[in-house]
Amino acid sequence: MTAPSSAERKACWEARDQLWRCLDDNNDKAACCQNFQSEFEAKCPAQWVKYFMKRRDFLKYKEKMQTDGFTPAEGPKQPS
Questions:
Q1: How many structural domains compose the chain?
Q2: Is residue 1 part of a domain?
Q3: Domain that holds residue 38
Q4: Which is more confident, 13 or 80?
Q5: Range 60-65, long-range pairs (CB < 8 A, 24+ positions)
Q6: How far apart are CA 80 and CA 68, in angstroms?
Q7: Is residue 75 part of a domain?
Q8: Are 39 and 18 in contact, with CB atoms under 8 Å apart?
Q9: Contacts of 32 (CB under 8 A, 6+ apart)
Q10: Is 45 helix (H, G, I), strand (E, B) or coil?
Q11: Distance between CA 23 and CA 79 in Å, rounded?
Q12: So what's the pLDDT on residue 33?
């Protein structure tokens, strides 16, 4: 795989931003953003697509932890 040119990187990032904006506006309903998803996958290398989607999941999780806080799961009680 050759490194994408500056113009290719810019097109990829713009496609990613449009997809993420669509997902944010539609409460993460992928079916509503299929056109943006297809464009994103066409303009970005497959490794980048995988990375950016994992990155989005992480950022959403991080935001949730910052706003809602962390609640540990109920587990077995340890004797004191």
A1: 1
A2: no
A3: 6-66
A4: 13
A5: none
A6: 29
A7: no
A8: yes
A9: 22, 26
A10: coil
A11: 46
A12: 95
State pLDDT tens for residues 22-31: 999 999 998 9
Q: How far is CA 31 from CA 22, 23, 42, in A?
A: 10, 9, 17
Q: Record the tokens describing residue 60, joined without a space.
A: 């959403």
**Global pTM exceeds 0.85:** no
Q: Is 22 domain-assigned?
A: yes
More confident residue, 66 or 51: 51
Q: Is the dihedral of CA 41, 50, 17, 36 positive or negative?
A: positive
- Residue 2 identity: T
Tokens encoding 32: 């509503």
What is the Rg, in whole angstroms, of the alpha carbon atoms belonging to the chain? 18
In a domain, 18, yes or no: yes
Determine what percent of the chain is predicted with pLDDT higher than 70.
90
Look at residue 8 and tell me whether its pLDDT is greater than 70.
yes
CA–chain centroid gap for 37, Å, is: 11
